[in-house]
Fold this sequence. Notes:
With 589 residues, the protein is mostly beta strands. It has helices spanning 49-54, 60-64, 132-135, 401-405, and strands at 26-27, 35-36, 44-47, 70-74, 82-86, 94-98, 101-103, 121-128, 142-148, 154-164, 168-178, 182-196, 207-223, 226-241, 250-266, 271-287, 292-310, 313-328, 337-351, 354-365, 369-383, 386-397, 417-430, 433-447, 455-470, 473-486, 499-508, 512-521, 524-526, 529-531, 534-544, 549-556, 580-588.
Amino acid sequence: MKTRILLPLAALAAGSAVAADSADTLVVTATRIAQTTDQTLVPVSVLTRDQIERSPATTLPELLGQLPGVDFSVSGGHGKTASLFLRGTNSNHTLVLIDGVRVGSATLGSFPFEQIPLAQIERIELVRGPRSSLYGAEAIGGVIQIFTRKGGQGTHASARIGAGSHGTRDLQTGASWGDETTQASVNLGYFDTDGVDALDGVNPDDDGYSNSSLGLNLRQQLGRTTYADMSLLRAESENHYDSQAAPADDYSDNLQQTLGLRVTSELSDQLSLNGGINEHRDESENFDAFPSTIKTQRRGADLKGDYYLNDDHLLSLGVDFYRDEVSKTGGNYDRTERDNRALFAQWQGQYGKLNLLAGVRHDDNEAYGHHSTGNLNLGYRVAPDHRLLASVGTGFKAPTFNQLYWPGFGNPNLKPEESTSYELGYEGRAKQTTYALRAFHTQVDNLISSQPDNQQARIRGLEVELTGEFAGWQAAANATLLDAIDRDDGSRLKNRAERSLKVELGRRYSEIDWLLTLLAQGDRDTSSGTLAGYGLLNLKARYAIDAHWGLEAKVNNLTGKDYTTNADFLGRSYSGLDRSYLLSLVYQR
């Protein structure tokens, strides 16, 4: 019954064609249930471990930056603050999950992508468009879920040792083992680099970065259809940066840690339950002209039931709870904790060639009150391999602790930012080529800013995706055209490019596997002026010595392009990475 409920399209791929996902690739983030990529009515991109291994990317922002609708603004080299703008929305308008755990800073409202090492990631799902009806606050631009590396049946081991330019060192090792009832894995990673000078004209020295990480996962079968999953991800980093206040060797110690326990059970052919408890910690200790320590802790619990009314209709009901707690040195916040309770419902149905998805959620937060959101998605199959898509959805962004309670500056009367989004799309497949065209419109009201009156934003965009395989060559391309403005004065929203093009071209020979990527970005406005557009070429090649050993080489910014994606309020540019390389010896068994 469960395999027939939604749209039975033929193969429509999601993610990059260089390692294209087949139509039976499962995704869970779009609807909080497992669906194949051809069933979901929501735009989803999937990155598998194989794609991560093939990519020239060294960091998570570099990897995500190749996906449709994604734009990053980075304040220097490795480990420096990376702000994500998904479909032109603000950097704190994208919800991030790690193994189902809601993560991010309750004080800043955003997530430090630069602190999560690729060594710990098994898979990434990127959902574009509002999902507040399922997840609540932050999911205006979309949702990114990171799945850490897990075990399977049998015994497996892996190791990597690498070295490269700017004094870069990369060490990874992992092992997994399991049988039909128990699977476990452990992964360790260490990355260190001397870096580059982060900010032009301020303390001209290299600003280094190091990251140590640990990942643990355990799955245990408790009954015929009942499973318990435990996951832990811990990443500690030290980041050196150039402070605008005083030219000195400033640095910060940072911690990201997620811990989750989840139980899933199929009680019958019609009913399944899924619930868990979790914790996320975000901590930062800064050693600069204004030393401080800020800590965020979020504890949560959730329970969801999925009831299959018949072969064509599914009803999901759930409850969410999380509590945020914060603390800082040098005078605490006026308020240090808040609870959020939520109820949500989602219905999915099929009527011949027409599929529908409808959802609604109500959040009750003791800091800013009640908020309701909803969405409606439709898909119409015009041919076995072609469909039309349409959607409308609302979202909201909760005020952060800094905005509400920062001593002397917070405003406890702030209300959430609110959004309404519309989208039209067409997806199709012809032989070994898949393509998609999507137009979207988002209006965000009550944007919290430093201005006396809150901003109103209007974002319009067009996404195009094309993937295919031609005579042994795998290719993928996507382009985004963006018109994001402040409705109050007509100015462009800051730090996001109006035009972007991403291309991947790869081929596997008998012993050699290589991938070339292009990232081309148009100009962007900052608070101190306009930054020029740029293009970056990156290359990854792997030579298989035998079935277990391999040599890898990454060369990023092949042409040595001088570029920047961010500047400070005085107009000084944050440095992008120059031409850099990383050579690695890899073992897998």
